[in-house]
Design goal:
Layout lengths: L7 H12 L4 E5 L6 H13 L13 H7 L6 E4 L2 H7 L5 H8 L11 H12 L8 E5 L7 H12 L5 E7 L5
Parallel strand pairs: 1-4, 2-3, 3-4
Helix pairs in contact: 1-2, 6-7
């Protein structure tokens, strides 16, 4: 995903975020404004091998890995329903449980997925550009899931960044 493919109203916020140095961003706005797209563009640029001031190059191996949903340094946390709708792969156990009808796809971000993300944040970057945890929609974390993220969010490893996108920042 390159910056020009973003909605016009997201290009300026992306450029502003890229000029800043925070390790975690909460992207909040009304429904339909593109919080997920902005979070993904931010994550893609952070991991891009040849980023520009406007965003990711869209051509390097890192950008391609994100486009095909296989980047080793990107951890996407979403309800399983949203992951399937947006084309992100589920972990093998979750996929098998859903296919075998042992349970329905979750509508919340599962605490097990968050715990895996905490472990991900503590590992070394595979491609050398750091790691990114993208959480969308952040309001779909219950209290237990949010608490599992809190310490890592407050005291992250040196090379991990977070992009949390929400339509309900008060939750």
């Amino acid at each position: 995903m390159t910056a020009p493919s973003l909605s016009p109203w997201l290009q300026q916020p992306l450029a502003e975020l890229l000029r800043q140095r925070g390790h975690a961003w909460l992207l909040q706005g009304a429904s339909g404004l593109g919080q997920y797209e902005l979070a993904l563009a931010l994550a893609t640029t952070w991991l891009c091998e040849q980023p520009t001031e406007q965003g990711a190059c869209g051509h390097c191996g890192s950008c391609h890995a994100i486009d095909v949903r296989t980047h080793a340094d990107l951890c996407v946390l979403m309800p399983e329903v949203a992951m399937m709708e947006l084309g992100w792969p589920l972990d093998e156990k979750s996929q098998a449980d859903i296919e075998d009808k042992k349970r329905k796809a979750s509508k919340e971000i599962r605490v097990e997925a968050m715990r895996e993300a905490v472990g991900f944040a503590q590992r070394t970057s595979a491609r050398g550009r750091g790691k990114v945890v993208l959480v969308y929609p952040a309001e779909r974390m219950n209290a237990i899931t949010a608490n599992a993220l809190l310490k890592t969010l407050e005291e992250p490893a040196g090379d991990v960044r977070f992009a949390l996108a929400t339509e309900a920042a008060w939750q």
